[in-house]
Amino acid sequence: MNFSKTLTTWYLENKRDLPWRKTTNPYCIWLSEIMLQQTRVAQGLPYYRAFTTEFPTVFDLANASEEQVLKLWQGLGYYSRARNLHATAKHITYDLNGIFPSDYKNLLKLKGVGEYTAAAIASFSYNEVVPVVDGNVFRVLSRYYNVTTDIASAKAKKEFTLLAQEVMSKDNPALFNQAIMEFGALQCVPKNPNCTICPLNASCAALSLKKVDELPVKIKTLKVKNRFLNYIYILDNKNKTTINQRTAKGIWHNLYEFPLVETEILESDEVVLELIHNKFDDISEIILMETETIKHKLSHQHLHIKFWKIRRKTTLENGLDFESLNKFPFPIVLHNFIENNKF
Questions:
Q1: Regarding predicted confidence, which is higher, 159 or 223?
Q2: In this structure, what are the phi and psi dihedrals at residue 258, rounded to the nearest 5 degrees?
Q3: Domain HhH-GPD, which positions (predicted)?
Q4: CA-closest candidate to residue 137, choices 104, 103, 83, 179
Q5: If we measure between CA atoms, which residue out of 172, 173, 216, 180 comes closest to residue 200?
Q6: Cis omega (within 30 of 0) on the bond before 216?
Q7: Which of 181, 214, 247 lies at the terminal end of a domain, its last residue?
Q8: Domain of 304: which CATH number?
């Protein structure tokens, strides 16, 4: 069985109708690939449409403010992608005269563009013969060829890239790359794939060896840090509030948030109350907004969040009303809180 031909035939019959597949414009492909890092297509698609409407060209994106970009990105997560996107748009606009690099090697030099994204743009925009290797490709190749290398190991990327290079179509690399990724996303899925309807089932090594559920091998486990965040939603005597920008490196860099009391462990409400009283004076009222802690899971951190509303007798300098508050980019968990607690 011709692996490449079978995949591309399946793809042409089963592919999803996605806007970035209807163009070779490197700006659109770059935008979609950055958005789809660590993000499902269903979640990323509305953001892609919003960005291409608001910023139809790389020049428009470059000339936007960082706050505009972060606000439009709000809720998509991994906000360093948005900051890198904006920085790269400026570089392409002002340093490269608005012209994207046209080959894999030079695409790799762009900020926020790794091997996978560079290969995708080089392949889909310029039809360069370079394999795109993502989680879907790891899964399809490891199952079909019974590759037992730990995909979290240092040597895995090189091994799978060489294998993909060997089996990919040299005549139409863009079509092959799209096909193998889509096959992994829709057919050769992580859990309980329907192998009975798979066009590769007659020659799939994992299926014949009854190892479908064991491949790909991934041994490395991610250490997750727990953080305990108490956000202080302040209302002054004019019913206005205040926010801060997160300028330190780490999660939510350059996004906005309410004043914060963070503790090393999960403290009792009494302890948090004391910490709040130590931090703010002139408190006339203090209320725990929700008794249940909100759990917000990031890839490497689990955030345990509580919101406290306090009223102060003073007038806040540069206090914000609700409409002004909504113009700033917030982490989605804070945005949702604001939407549900209009003042």
A1: 159
A2: -75, 165
A3: 35-186
A4: 179
A5: 180
A6: yes
A7: 214
A8: 3.90.79.10
Q: What is the rounded CA–CA span in Å between residue 65 and residue 228?
A: 31
Indicate if the pLDDT at residue 221 is higher than 80. no
Burial class (CB in 10 A: 0-12, 13-18, 19+), 221: exposed
* Triad 156, 116, 25: Cα angle to 5°: 160
Residue positions annotated with a catalytic role: 33
Written as six digits, the tokens of 183 are: 């096959």
Q: Give DSSP secondary structure letters for 159-223.
A: HHHHHHHHHS-SS-HHHHHHHHHHHHHHTS-SSS--GGG-TTTTT-HHHHTT-GGG-S-------
**In this structure, is residue 50 part of a structural domain?**
yes
What is the token pair recorded at 132? 């795109």
Residue (of 190, 174, 176) closest to 139 by Cα position? 190
Say whether pLDDT at 194 is over 70. yes
Q: How far apart are CA 36 and CA 20, in angstroms?
A: 11
Angstrom distances, CA of residue 43 to CA of 90, 189, 289: 26, 18, 29
How far apart are the C-alpha atoms of 252 and 261, rounded to whole Å?
16
Cα dihedral value 49, 51, 56, 59, nearest 10: -160
- Shared domain for 200 and 287, answered yes or no, is no
Domain boundary among 169, 189, 214: 214
The yes-or-no verdict on residue 1 having pLDDT over 70 is no
Helix axes 26-35, 115-126, angle to 10 degrees: 150
Give residue-wise pLDDT tens across range 233-262.
999 999 999 999 999 888 999 999 999 999
**Which residues form the domain of 237?**
225-340
Amino acid identity of residue 113, one-letter, is V
Closest CA to 31 of 92, 75, 94: 92
State the helix-helix crossing angle for 115-126 and 173-186, rounded to 10 degrees: 120
How do residues 44-91 score in pLDDT, each as one tens digit? 999 999 999 999 999 999 999 999 999 999 999 999 999 999 999 999
Q: Is residue 219 part of a domain?
A: no
Query: Is 318 part of a structural domain of the chain?
Result: yes
